[in-house]
Amino acid sequence: MKNTILLLAFCLLGFGTTALAQNTSATHTTPHKVVIQLNSGDTAAWGGVIGNVKNLSKIWPTNLSVEVVVHGKALDFLVAAKSHLVADIEQLSKKGVVFNACENTMGKYGITKQMLIPSVFTVPSGVGEVILKQEEGWSYLRAGY
């Protein structure tokens, strides 16, 4: 009886290990799509976004799409003359990370496309863009509070 129980336990342990190994390898090939919403004027939150994107890129150096949607008081994050993270944003943009500025917020604060960091794109509505990405199945991450 003891031998039967031990044999059963080893079989279950082996099955669990195989399932875990299969799950881990699937994570490396599954496409990950993340939309990050930033609307905080807190510059620590801005640095946090850069850190999160870099960390995600380390975990999934391939099969990762990231879009950072910026609106509200965070818009200065993408304004070339006001952001302390221009080099980081440009570097991440070259690696495929998309940074989008909300045109509604730009209009509210008198920010023109020419004032933004050159690699930054715009969207008509930051909140609308986040909703569209979620409807397309993107994972959502809110940065700053």
Structure explained in plain terms:
- With 145 residues, this protein is of the alpha/beta class.
- The chain folds into 2 domains: 1-30; 32-143, Hypothetical Protein Ychn, Chain: A (3-Layer(aba) Sandwich).
- It is 49% helix and 19% strand.
- It contains 5 helices and 5 strands, in the order H-E-H-E-H-E-H-E-H-E.
- Strands 4-3-2-1-5 form a 5-stranded parallel sheet, with helices on both faces.
Condensed summary:
This protein has 145 residues and is α/β, with parallel strands linked by helices.
Features:
disordered N terminus, 145 residues, Hypothetical Protein Ychn, Chain: A, globular, 5 helices, single chain, 2 domains, five-stranded parallel beta sheet, 5 strands, alpha/beta
SSE map:
Layout: H1 2-29, E1 32-38, H2 43-59, E2 64-70, H3 86-94, E3 98-102, H4 103-109, E4 121-123, H5 126-135, E5 139-143
Parallel strand pairs: 1-2, 1-5, 2-3, 3-4
